[in-house]
Each structure stands twice: as C-alpha cells, then as structure tokens.
Design goal:
Layout: H1 2-8, E1 10-20, H2 35-51, E2 55-64, H3 72-91, E3 101-104, H4 110-118, H5 125-132, E4 138-141, E5 145-148, H6 149-156, H7 161-169, H8 171-174, E6 176-186, H9 220-223, E7 234-240, H10 241-245, E8 249-258, E9 261-270, E10 273-274, E11 276-286, E12 289-292, E13 300-316, E14 320-324, E15 331-343, E16 350-369, E17 379-402
Parallel strand pairs: 2-3
Antiparallel strand pairs: 1-6, 2-6, 4-5, 7-8, 7-17, 8-9, 9-11, 9-12, 10-11, 11-13, 12-13, 13-14, 13-15, 14-16, 15-16, 16-17
Helix pairs in contact: 4-5
C-alpha cells in the first residue's frame, strides 16, 4: 500500500545537455560553438541535484554521434570517444550508480538529419528523405573499410552537390555528445507522512539491457562497385608570420597527395637590410616537404621530412658579414619536422598551422669585413662547416581550396 502511494505522488522530470565537437575530434573544447553555455548549465544542474534531497536519478543516458563523411570504423570510434568524454565530465562531479546508466554510441544520428531536411525546401528533397529511410547496410570500400550504403547514394545525387549542401548546413550539428537525466521527485503530500522507504524500491527497473542496431553486410561481389572517397583533396595557400617578422616575404602552397599524405612547398625571399647596411638577413630559400597525417583527414598533427636550399647574406652589426661562397654555393640539406593544423573558421576555409623542424646542412661560406658599404668589405676567410639545428619555425595562416568541386571549403 505504501509503495503504491509513493509511486502515485512521485513526479518524473527530464533534462538533456548537448556538447559539440570539431571535425575528427573528441576532446571537449569549452570555447567551441555553445559548449561553454551548455557546460555551465550542466554543472549548475548537477550542483542543484546534489543539494536537493527530494530528487533522485532513475536513469542517465549518454549518447555520442558523428557526422557521416568518414568511414564506419572512424565514426564509430569518434562517437564512442565523444560519449566517453562527456561521461567523464559528469562522473567527475557526481556519483551515479552503474545500474541506472545507459550508453548509446550508435554512430550517426540519421533521424536528426532527416528531421532537419523535412523542414526545409531544397533540391532533391524527396530523394534525400527516401535514401535516409533505407535500412542501414554497410558496404566495403577502400581496402576493407566499411561505409553506410546511404552515404554512397547521397553522394551520387547531382554529382555530389546535394551532399555538399548537407555537409555545409547540417553535418556540424551531428558531431556531438549528449546526456539525458531522468529524475523522480517525491511530491509533498499535505497532512500525510510517508514511511522512509529506500528509493530504489520505487523504481525497480531492469537497466541492464543492450540495444544493438543491425548492420547486415551485403555479398562481396557488388561491394567492388560501390566505391566512395572518404575525403576530399585540397590546396592550401599559406604565409608564415615568423618569416614576415624577419622581413622575409614568403608564400607556401600545399596539396593533398592522398589520404594521410601531402606535399608542401614554402618559398622565402628577402633583399633588404635591417635599417642599416651592417645589419641584414637576406636570403632566398625553398624547402619542399612531404607530410604524413596520422588522422587520415590531412589535418591535426603531422610529421614531415624536407629538403632545404638556401642562398644567404647575413650581418648582425658585428665585425663580419657571412655569405654563401662566391654567391653561388647555397646551403643544401634536409631534416624532419613536427606540426599541427587546426581550423579558425566554422566552414574550415581559414586554418592556422604551427610547425618546427631541425636538419643537417653542409655549408661553404665567405667571411667579409662588415662595412657600411658592403662592396668595400674585404674578404677575410672562406670556411666549410656542417650545421645541425633548427631550420624551420612557422606560425602560418592558411586558406583552403576544395579541388573536388572546384570551390572553396
């Protein structure tokens, strides 16, 4: 009787919080999108629950999701890691019994995408909705990787133009993690005092259930026909602020060779003195470089190997000036570098890149007296050495061009 009475006067409440993520990332960045506002609200809510003795959790549901442009394996990993990142924040603030926790890393929120498309007027809207209503079937492509067949079909509409529109307008909202709290509050009953019952008796619910979404594989033969690129090739046009600070005019072009690989070619030139003829850092240098990107999206961290060719004429207001031998003996060498590139704008057109590298260079140079009139500086000595050390430092601003569509990304 008391159990029935307590359930009658219990009130259920729900609260949900959503955190957004950048492309191909699973770390929670408070400054990204509306994350700061959402995290502040989440922490305030958890504090209120901790101080409210009449309210209890009966269910906590964590979800992780990814946008559909990657492979099944990559997006499945991203949705799981995004879900785990949000759960770590919540569990760091409040204790939750494992029996009331549910987890859903079901990879891509197709229902969300469908609901967004249904509310707008867009070309081929009916075709898009029809494809989204299809059963989830994984097909093999690109050396054994898997992809949802719906992605292949969406990319085929109007030669990829509809896919590009979906990417720009809706995919950003699909890269998220959420937590939903279902709570129960015991209502105050006038002139009636309920006996103290342990709260779990009011909600004896079996929460040890798993939800599995079937992804049947089709037969191997037709899989060879369904080939869909996982990424888009880009060109990046860049300038290095470190070079500009040294009065070196510079420009760099980079092109994606393949997934994981790109080729970068920076060019530096300076033909001026630093305010007077006895201080100069004149150079003409090129440094072709091949880069490897572990992420496969040719973004985030990279390692590279480069060659370097540099003509130089240096003077630092001291007694001597240093120049490559006879002005025709550039320093030629090479080395390794490490760097990181990240987006600056929501559409990924503008990016910023940081890198540093070291190398080995045999050098053959002349030493002259450093006089106000460079031509009057007498030759003092000619030397050969091997330089080992820093040969690259950059903080570069990049603009991105999409080669596949001929437009900008």
């Amino acid at each position: 009787m008391f159990l029935h009475w307590g359930q009658l006067y219990a009130q259920n409440e729900e609260r949900e919080f959503n955190i957004g993520f950048r492309v191909n990332e699973f770390h929670v960045v408070p400054t990204f999108a509306d994350n700061k506002k959402e995290i502040d609200s989440l922490l305030l809510f958890l504090h209120r629950i901790q101080t409210d003795s009449a309210q209890y959790f009966i269910n906590v549901i964590f979800r992780g999701a990814a946008s559909p442009e990657g492979s099944f394996q990559l997006n499945k990993m991203l949705s799981l890691q995004r879900m785990n990142a949000l759960e770590k924040i919540v569990r760091g603030k409040i204790d939750i019994s494992e029996t009331m926790v549910e987890r859903d890393d079901s990879y891509i929120p197709w229902d969300h995408l469908k609901s967004r498309v249904e509310k707008v007027n867009m070309p081929y809207k009916d075709s898009v909705i029809s494809i989204l209503d299809n059963e989830p079937i994984l097909v093999e492509y690109n050396n054994g990787k898997l992809i949802d067949q719906r992605i292949v079909k969406l990319r085929e509409i109007e030669n990829g133009k509809v896919w590009l529109q979906l990417f720009k307008n809706y995919f950003g909202d699909m890269r998220n993690a959420s937590v939903k709290f279902i709570m129960q509050r015991i209502a105050n009953i006038p002139n009636c005092k309920l006996p103290a019952l342990p709260f779990p008796a009011l909600c004896n619910i079996d929460r040890n259930r798993e939800r599995k979404i079937p992804y049947p594989l089709i037969s191997p033969e037709p899989l060879k026909i369904l080939v869909c690129p996982e990424w888009t090739r880009h060109i990046y046009l860049k300038t290095n602020f470190v070079g500009l600070a040294l009065l070196n005019a510079n420009i760099s072009g980079e092109i994606d060779i393949a997934k994981h690989w790109s080729f970068n070619l920076p060019i530096y030139y300076s033909g001026c003195n630093y305010f007077k003829s006895t201080i100069k850092f004149r150079t003409f240098s090129i440094q072709p470089e091949v880069r490897y990107w572990p992420s496969g999206w040719n973004d985030s961290w990279f390692v590279g190997t480069h060659l370097g060719v540099s003509y130089y004429n240096f003077a630092f207001n001291g007694a001597y000036r240093y120049q490559d031998h006879n002005g025709r003996s550039p320093s030629i060498g090479g080395g390794l570098c490490l760097g990181y590139r990240m987006p600056l704008s929501g559409d990924n057109k503008w990016k910023i890149e940081f890198s540093a590298g070291a190398g080995v260079y045999p050098i053959h140079y002349d030493i002259f007296r450093n006089t106000p009139s460079t031509k009057n500086g007498l030759l003092v000595d000619t030397k050969r050495k091997t330089y080992f050390g820093l040969d690259q430092a950059s903080i570069s601003l990049a603009y991105t061009f999409d080669l596949k569509t001929g437009g900008k990304r």
